[in-house]
Amino acid sequence: MEVYADYAATTPVKQEVVDKMMDIYAVHYGNPSSIHSVGRNARKHLDDSRRSVKQALGAKQNEIIFTSGATESNNTAIKGIAYAQRYKGNHIITTKIEHHSVLHVFEQLEKEGFDVTYLDVDHQGLVQLDQLKEVITEQTILVSIMFVNNEIGTVQPMYEIDSIVADSNALLHVDAVQAIGHLDINFHDFNIDAMSITAHKFGGPKGVGALVVKEGTPLQFLQLGGEQEAKRRAGTENLPQIVGFAEALKLATEHLNENNIHLMNLKNQFLVSLQERSIPFELNGSMTESTGHIVNLYFPFIDVETILTLLDLANIYVSSGSACTAGTTTPSHVLVAMYEHDDRAKHSVRFSFNEQTTEQEVKYIATEIHKIYHKFKEDI
Ligand SMILES: Cc1ncc(COP(=O)(O)O)c(C=O)c1O
After folding, report:
1. Helices (H) and strands (E) in the chain, counts
2. Residues near 40 by Cβ (< 8 Å), separated by ≥ 6?
3. Which residues does residue 352 pair with via DSSP β-bridges, in sequence order?
4. 82-136 pLDDT, tens digit each
5. Rounded alpha-carbon distances, angstroms, from residue 300 to 32, 241, 336, 348
6. How many angstroms does the Cα of residue 70 sit away from the middle of ligand 1?
7. pLDDT, tens digit (0-9, with 9 covering 90-100), for 131-180
8. Quick check: do 3-11+256-375 and 15-254 share a fold?
9. What is the whole-number distance in angstroms between the Cα of residue 280 and the centre of ligand 1?
10. Sign of torsion, CA 11 12 18 20?
11. Which of 182, 204, 249, 358 could form a disulfide with 291 if both were Cys (CB 3.0 to 4.6 A apart)?
């Protein structure tokens, strides 16, 4: 058996999505900025995709900016808001558990003279609302907090965060990458000013995503050289990818409830299968404030490199944390922030599932971990 359980890193592209994209590559190949009918035809597909994305997210059409994915969206939102609002204040806030496409931007802004607060999280990976209230000042211009953490699946209390930020002078940016397809997000139910998403986490292609920007949000756009995306993101639109993104988002949104039930059941089955085999483990994160697709576990009996290698030999593909830290020995900054030391991070593995994952697959993973546990028990 072969089990891919690294869907939080990326997902296969759905066949319906591939079909739509192929049609654009081969038939509707025009440049949406060309004024002849081939261009106008491409423009229609671009407009249709934007309409479909805005519907899925409960946003307005002019609030969707297509990008090359969440790394670009996060960079654009954070730098764009920080530079545009600098005349109002110099203080910006994020958390210690953000994706590096957020954290590294804050570190860069810190070097440029911004005053940065990195919020702590508790053992479940949750931001402390009291700390957020305490650190926000009149000088705070931006707060950036992720919706769902990509390593532990913890869901932040976004309505509460949103209302704290709304009572201040600051704007709110949310990295919603791991929330899409798992939480029913209606952009205008919140006071979020900018929200990043990427297609490849829910059955769409890599290299395409969006920044959803609330109408009127002051944002300095840094990419020059074209008038695309209402002058906010220069460069010929990657139409096949955008069409694929819109289709994948539509499918993910339509099947959200049934997928969530499936994933929650799988998560429970996986944990029960490990318990039934008497494998020692602890959950990193929260059992209740979390999505079903990510299960991060601490195995005290083995280090992460060894277990990842042994699982790979058993054709089980998982990772130690985010995709960018996979394959390195650097302990996860998320787990270090949660447990205040890196020992736990050195013994923890992220399993991530999607709607294609089966009960048989999670049981196979549990069986293989059981074999590894017994081998290591004997060796000790
Ligand atoms: C929470 C989060 N933010 C941002 C990204 C970056 O997205 P992209 O691969 O589209 O640049 C990822 C992907 O790993 C992620 O999980």
Report:
1. 12, 12
2. 30, 34
3. 6, 294
4. 999 999 999 999 999 999 999 999 999 999 999 999 999 999 999 999 999 999 9
5. 55, 42, 16, 8
6. 5
7. 999 999 999 999 999 999 999 999 999 999 999 999 999 999 999 999 99
8. no
9. 31
10. negative
11. 182
> What's the rounded Cα separation, in Å, for the pair 25 and 141?
42
15-254 is classed CATH 3.40.50.970: no
Fold of 3-11+256-375: Aspartate Aminotransferase, domain 1 (3.90.1150)
Q: What is the pLDDT of residues 311-353, one digit of tens each?
A: 999 999 999 864 444 455 588 999 999 998 778 999 999 999 9
At 149, the amino acid letter reads N
- Collect all residues with Cβ–Cβ distance below 8 Å to 134 and sequence separation of at least 6: none
Q: Which ligand 1 atom sits nearest the alpha carbon of residue 322?
A: 14
Give the integer Cα–Cα distance in Å for 151 and 367: 23
Domain spans, the chain: 3-11+256-375, 15-254
Q: 336 catalytic, yes or no?
A: no
Catalytic residue among 324, 326, 343, 356: 324
